[in-house]
């Protein structure tokens, strides 16, 4: 049961799940390397929990195989898989005290002397004092730690976490994110974490798979996903993106020259995930914090070689660390710009004519055949709680 | 005036307690009468008027012919009816909550039929059924009838409990290396147990003092309720009150023990 070299790899190949005519998960290939912290990120109903449950054995895949290391577990019942789950509502046994909850897995495997192990595990999650209490006597954060301890004590090859922090308030959630990350580094077990909270996925995971409508949209490190999204869903779901429709004009070296609303924009070819025929359409994206804002009167001071767009400030909001501007521009009616409050230009008030400019290296290009609004607003209502 | 006012205020602030005591008195009065008259020494055969204090009946509870025989029969029937109804009812409850099968809706409502049907009607039909089958009326026919009418009560009690149980708990158990049997014994059963216990207690009480259905299906067999009814025609022995009081005391004792155990457990937990 202990983790060996590649014993903690999770390999899903062609795995899918259909309920009648509804496809929860489309055939999916995914490899989670041993010892990594992997996040499945997506809005509710995207198939991430189903995928997790198929790894746990709680859901039978309609097709495909599940491997743990070299062992195929596709047809093994959950109690025969060296995998443990931290459930969304914790699912602590209400009739057992904390000690017995944590000892449950060991006892079921016929291990007699559990006392020392359970006490050590409760110490690890800082609940040594609460061993004889019943679950309902603990706070949400404590229950969550019991759920983690109850799963971890079995030293599974893979620990599955199903929205484990969803029921906690924001402050506690931040604390538990760091705590879980610490535990994962300490025990070195592969963690597969399901969440709808993009911030949570980005802070905790080494690798994030963004899921949408039963498919993995994109897989990569948090920074990679954020800086170089390949679909509008990823661009909008992870943070905020400004997307502009543009037409391919020409190529110059590694860069593509695009035309948008009369102006020209440069896009590094390597950062474009769409086919680029001359005359074809491309969605140009840029993150709001990459953009500088200059009053139209000072437009002459902007260095050459930067992408530029003109517009008029529609609204501003002061956030403290930054100021967020909404710019009405001919190419995009609601262009978002976040500016650090270093030296604030008093002229940048609603109604002012401005020039937006950014380093072309921060531009990314997406296929224009997608829904430009995909993934917008699906995160924030829950993440902002 | 001030005096009246203060009484009014006192009444107002203690209204709930006073109402509660009245209700309790109303509920307990019959039991008190039964208990008091178990210490009576009646002049004739009827124990309806208080004569003088005596513990004769308590010292010789089986002193009346056939009383203890009928009591033991009633207890045996109640015991087996409880077992039968609880096992079957628990399984039905699980089936109704956990599985989707054809006619599930129909079963769900038909299970309440014995509760809704007038007992006399049911008793008469059962008698017809047994006679047509050529069954020998007695212990077994009574038992079959009792299991039948206790069943719906057990199903209702257990179903409520199973429905309120988080299905994730069983998933968690399976995830933690418990096979199907272990999951049921270690997680499902303990969590549903209060519902099963409530159903069983209800079944026992219903079976023990059932008169109507028993009377129809008993043939020449006499259960305790039938004995009490029969003797009431000719005279009521004090021993009936003794048995009644004893049953009441045993029930109270059970409840108190349960409460004490529960309290001690709670105190240990919070300590």
CATH C-level label of the largest domain in chain B:
Mainly Alpha
Could you name the CATH class of the largest domain in chain A? Alpha Beta
**N-to-C terminal Cα separation of chain A, in Å?**
39 Å
- State the end-to-end distance of chain B: 51 Å
CATH architecture of the largest domain in chain B: Orthogonal Bundle
Largest sheet of chain A: 6 strands, mixed
Uncertain regions spanning at least 5 consecutive residues of chain B:
none
Q: Give the low-confidence spans of chain A.
A: 379-385
Indicate the overall shape of chain A. elongated
Q: Major β-sheet of chain B, in short?
A: none
**Could you say what the CATH topology of the largest domain in chain B is called?**
MetI-like fold
Q: Into which percentage range does the β-strand content of chain A fall?
A: 25-35%
**What's the quaternary structure here?**
heterodimer
| Total domains of chain A | 2
How are helices and strands ordered from N to C of chain B? HHHHHHHHHHHHH
Please give a handful of descriptors for the protein shown.
heterodimer; A: alpha+beta; 2 domains; 5-stranded antiparallel beta sheet; 9 helices; B: 271 residues; MetI-like fold; 0% strand; transport (chain A); Spermidine/putrescine import ATP-binding protein PotA (chain A)
């Amino acid at each position: 049961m202990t983790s060996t070299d590649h014993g903690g790899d999770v390999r899903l190949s062609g795995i899918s799940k259909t309920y009648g005519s509804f496809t929860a998960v489309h055939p999916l290939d995914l490899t989670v390397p041993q010892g990594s912290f992997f996040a499945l990120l997506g809005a509710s109903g995207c198939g991430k929990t189903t995928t997790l449950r198929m790894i746990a054995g709680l859901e039978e895949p309609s097709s495909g195989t599940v491997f743990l290391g070299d062992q195929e577990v596709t047809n093994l019942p959950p109690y025969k898989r060296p995998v443990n789950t931290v459930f969304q509502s914790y699912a602590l046994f209400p009739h057992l005290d904390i000690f017995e909850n944590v000892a449950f897995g060991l006892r079921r495997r016929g291990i007699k002397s559990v006392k020392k192990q359970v006490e050590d595990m409760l110490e690890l999650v800082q609940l040594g004092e609460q061993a004889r209490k019943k679950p309902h006597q603990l706070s949400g954060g404590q229950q969550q730690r019991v759920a983690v301890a109850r799963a971890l004590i079995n030293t599974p090859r893979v620990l599955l976490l199903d929205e484990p922090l969803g029921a906690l308030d924001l402050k506690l959630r931040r604390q538990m994110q760091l705590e879980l990350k610490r535990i994962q580094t300490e025990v070195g077990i592969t963690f597969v974490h399901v969440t709808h909270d993009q911030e949570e996925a980005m802070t905790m995971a080494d690798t994030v798979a963004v899921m949408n409508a039963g498919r993995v949209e994109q897989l990569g490190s948090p920074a990679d996903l954020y800086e170089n999204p390949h679909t509008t869903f990823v661009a909008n779901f992870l943070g905020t993106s400004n997307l502009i429709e543009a037409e391919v004009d020409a190529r110059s070296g590694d860069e593509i020259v695009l035309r948008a609303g009369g102006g020209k924009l440069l896009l590094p070819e390597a950062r474009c995930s769409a086919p680029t025929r001359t005359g074809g359409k491309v969605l140009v994206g840029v993150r709001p914090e990459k953009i500088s804002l200059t009053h139209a009167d000072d437009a002459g001071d902007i260095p050459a070689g930067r992408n530029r767009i003109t517009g008029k400030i529609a609204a501003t909001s002061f956030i403290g660390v930054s100021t967020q501007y909404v710019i009405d521009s001919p190419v995009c009616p609601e262009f978002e710009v976040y500016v650090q409050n270093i030296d604030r230009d008093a002229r940048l008030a609603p109604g002012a004519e401005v020039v937006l400019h950014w380093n072309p290296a921060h531009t990314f290009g997406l296929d224009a055949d997608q829904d430009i609004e995909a993934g917008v607003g699906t995160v924030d209502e829950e993440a902002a709680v | 005036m001030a005096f009246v006012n203060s009484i009014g205020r006192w009444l107002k602030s203690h209204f709930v307690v006073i109402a509660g005591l009245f209700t309790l008195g109303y509920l307990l009065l019959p039991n008190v009468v039964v208990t008091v008259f178990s210490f009576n020494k009646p002049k004739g055969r009827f124990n309806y008027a208080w004569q003088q204090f005596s513990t004769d009946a308590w010292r010789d509870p089986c002193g009346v012919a056939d009383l203890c025989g009928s009591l033991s029969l009633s207890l045996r029937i109640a015991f087996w009816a409880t077992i039968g109804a609880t096992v079957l009812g628990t399984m039905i409850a699980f089936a109704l909550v956990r599985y989707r099968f054809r006619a599930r809706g129909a079963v769900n409502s038909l299970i309440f039929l014995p509760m809704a049907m007038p007992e006399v009607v049911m008793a008469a039909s059962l008698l017809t059924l047994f006679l047509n089958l050529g069954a020998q009326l007695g212990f077994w026919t009574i038992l079959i009838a009792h299991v039948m009418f206790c069943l719906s009560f057990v199903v209702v009690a257990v179903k409520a409990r199973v429905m309120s149980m988080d299905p994730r708990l069983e998933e968690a158990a399976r995830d933690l290396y418990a096979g199907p049997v272990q999951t049921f014994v270690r997680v499902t059963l303990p969590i549903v147990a209060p519902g099963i216990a409530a159903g069983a207690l209800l079944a026992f009480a219903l079976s023990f003092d059932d008169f109507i259905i028993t009377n129809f299906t008993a043939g020449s067999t006499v259960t305790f309720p039938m004995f009490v009814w029969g003797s009431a025609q000719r005279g009521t022995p004090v021993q009936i009150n003794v048995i009644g009081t004893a049953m009441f005391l045993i029930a109270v004792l059970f409840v108190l023990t349960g409460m004490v155990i529960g309290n001690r457990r709670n105190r240990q937990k919070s300590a």
